[in-house]
Write a structure and sequence with these properties.
globular, disordered C terminus, 19% strand, three-stranded antiparallel β-sheet
């Protein structure tokens, strides 16, 4: 399986790893069958993601997509974060093997799950803003 240099860089030296103790948005997405589990921590102030960290258990692609997704949303207003797509994550990594595309979907969904949590904590229904969060149920999991 061929990985881009960008994927290998983010896998071997992932950015923004860890937890944010006072995070005001936390989202976890994963699939035990696959073994890929992503947890995103957001610190949002004045509608801007001022800090973001992640903890991911999974393959190289799962870690790389988590890392690049955090880079893409850090310092961004929520309005921009909501536009994050799995295809933008794949493009930022200079591509992923076809069997690993589901990892980019996980990264997008983990960010959206954390945003949903942020809105719920404020008593706001997140679904009209963030959309429905689909937990990862991918039957074609590959190692």
């Amino acid at each position: 399986m061929e990985y881009s240099a960008k994927v290998m860089e983010h896998f071997t030296n992932p950015h923004n790893v860890g937890e944010i103790p006072d995070a005001n948005g936390i989202g976890e997405i994963g699939n035990a069958k696959c073994g890929d589990i992503m947890k995103m921590y957001l610190k949002i102030e004045n509608d801007v993601v001022v800090d973001v960290k992640f903890k991911t258990y999974g393959c190289a692609s799962a870690i790389a997509t988590s890392s690049i997704a955090t880079d893409m949303i850090k310092g961004q207003p929520i309005s921009e974060v909501l536009k994050l797509t799995n295809s933008a994550v794949v493009e930022a990594l200079d591509g992923l093997p076809a069997v690993k595309i589901h990892c980019s979907v996980l990264a997008e969904q983990a960010v959206k799950a954390a945003l949903s949590d942020y809105y719920k904590r404020q008593g706001i229904d997140p679904e009209p803003i963030v959309g429905k969060i689909e937990d990862h149920d991918h039957d074609a999991c590959h190692i």
